[in-house]
Each structure stands twice: as structure tokens, then as C-alpha cells.
Design goal:
- α1 runs parallel beside α6 and α5 packs across α6.
- The chain has one domain: Formyl transferase, N-terminal domain (Rossmann fold, 3-Layer(aba) Sandwich).
- It is α/β, with parallel strands linked by helices and 197 residues long.
- It is built from six helices and nine strands; from the N terminus they run βαβαβαβαβαββαββ.
- Helices cover 35% and strands 26% of the residues.
- The longest helix has 24 residues.
- The mean pLDDT is 97.
- One of its GO terms (molecular function) is phosphoribosylglycinamide formyltransferase activity.
- It catalyses: N(1)-(5-phospho-beta-D-ribosyl)glycinamide + (6R)-10-formyltetrahydrofolate = N(2)-formyl-N(1)-(5-phospho-beta-D-ribosyl)glycinamide + (6S)-5,6,7,8-tetrahydrofolate + H(+).
- Belongs to the GART family.
Length: 197
């Protein structure tokens, strides 16, 4: 059974969706650590409520790598983690760090495109469709291999908050699904692209 860490910075609803899926038997893996770069992230409380070890580390990827190796972590899930990872961490877990992004990459992604900024940009551009993407993390922000995407119609929505709410519904299904696939060894990198087998 693979062991994984989940990184969070805020409310932790994506983390909760993973915990729930694990409890429902949909993820054949162990959430061994929940780590945050923010002391007051509510996601830490969600982890504690589920009996999962937590840690807070700010801007010290060398320490993070050390902690992960000590716990024999196989892969990492970024679930609303609002920090850019250093090469040190990425190189320690090549194609073993997955991130959920609240748009259909390659649209509305890259430096500065996170959280509500994404939905505001989508609204301002007048996009009719948005969605969520799970991808592997590379040294290019939001540039790693795309694992899975789900789109949704947003043509009836008028605020960034409403877009966020609809996209979050997708995230809460998509991220646990991809984590489950990874734990079952059903995701492979072939010719630089992620394939679900």
C-alpha cells in the first residue's frame, strides 16, 4: 500500500474529499502526513480529526524532503497548496507530485494563477467553459503532464464565486479519483504524457 502526503494551505475541502474517499474504500493508500505552510490552515484540523499526522513548514523544502523520506512517503498530493515548490522537492519526487488546478490547463494557469485569481480571469475573459485539471508537478509552473481533466459549463454564471463553487464540485470528485488510480498503479508516463491504463 502506497503512503502519501497531502499539502494544504487553507480550508482543506479537497483534502476532506480524499479523506472521505479513503474512508469509503475508494483509495487503496495511506494518508501518512498532512503538511501546511500556514499555521492556521483549517485543513490541519481536518487531518487531526481524521487521526492523521500534521506538520507546518514554511519555505524549507530541504526539511520537507527530509520529513517525507523519514516517513517513507511514496508520492505527494497538492490540495490547495499555495506555494511554488523548489527544484529540490520536485527533483526528489519526479512525476510523484500531483496538483489540482481550478481550470482546464493550458488555459488560465502559470505564475499568479491560483485560487480565486483563476476564476476572476475566467470570468473577465468571458469563457463559457471551465473545469479542473489534475497534473504532475514539474519545474515549470502548471507545466507537468496532465493526468485527467473534467470540464463544466459556466455560461449561466455571473460571479467568480459561483464559478469557484461549480469547479470545486468537480475537484472533490476528480482529485480522489486520480489519487485512487495512482495508488492502484494505473497512471503511467509514456513519451512525456500521463496515461491512465
Amino acid at each position: 500500500m502506497l503512503k502519501f502526503a497531502v499539502f494544504v494551505s487553507g480550508w482543506g475541502t479537497d483534502l476532506q474529499s480524499i479523506i472521505d474517499a479513503k474512508n469509503e474504500g475508494k483509495i487503496n493508500g495511506e494518508i501518512a502526513l498532512v503538511l501546511s505552510n500556514r499555521q492556521k490552515a483549517y485543513g490541519l484540523q481536518r487531518a487531526k480529526d481524521a487521526g492523521i499526522e500534521t506538520a507546518v513548514v514554511k519555505k524549507d523544502d530541504a526539511l520537507i524532503v527530509k520529513m517525507l523520506k523519514e516517513r517513507n512517503i511514496d508520492f505527494i498530493v497538492l490540495a490547495g497548496y499555495l506555494a511554488i515548490l523548489t527544484d529540490e522537492l520536485i527533483d526528489a519526487y519526479p512525476n510523484k507530485i500531483m496538483n489540482i488546478h481550478p481550470s482546464l490547463i493550458p488555459s488560465f494557469c502559470g505564475p499568479g494563477m491560483y485560487g480565486m485569481h483563476v476564476h476572476e480571469a475566467v470570468l473577465q475573459r468571458g469563457a463559457k467553459v471551465s473545469g479542473a485539471t489534475v497534473h504532475f508537478v514539474s519545474n515549470i509552473v502548471d507545466g507537468g503532464p496532465i493526468i485527467k481533466q473534467v470540464a463544466c459549463d459556466i455560461s449561466d454564471l455571473d460571479t467568480a464565486e459561483d464559478i469557484q463553487k461549480r469547479v470545486l464540485e468537480i475537484e472533490h470528485k476528480l482529485l480522489p479519483e486520480v489519487v485512487g488510480l495512482y495508488c492502484d498503479n494505473k497512471i503511467k508516463i509514456i513519451d512525456g504524457k500521463a496515461k491512465v491504463i
